[in-house]
Amino acid sequence: MAQYASILFSMILVNNFVLVKFLGICPFLGVSKRFDSAVGMGCAVTLVMLLAVSITWPLQRLLEAWGIEYLQTIVFILVIATLVQLLEMALKRFVPSLHASLGVFLPLITTNCSVLGVAILAVDEGYTYPEALVAALGAGLGFLLAMVLFSGVRSSLEEAEPPQAFRGMPITLIAAAIVAMSFMGFSGVVDHLFGA
Question: Please, what is the average pLDDT of the chain?
Answer without folding.
Answer: 88
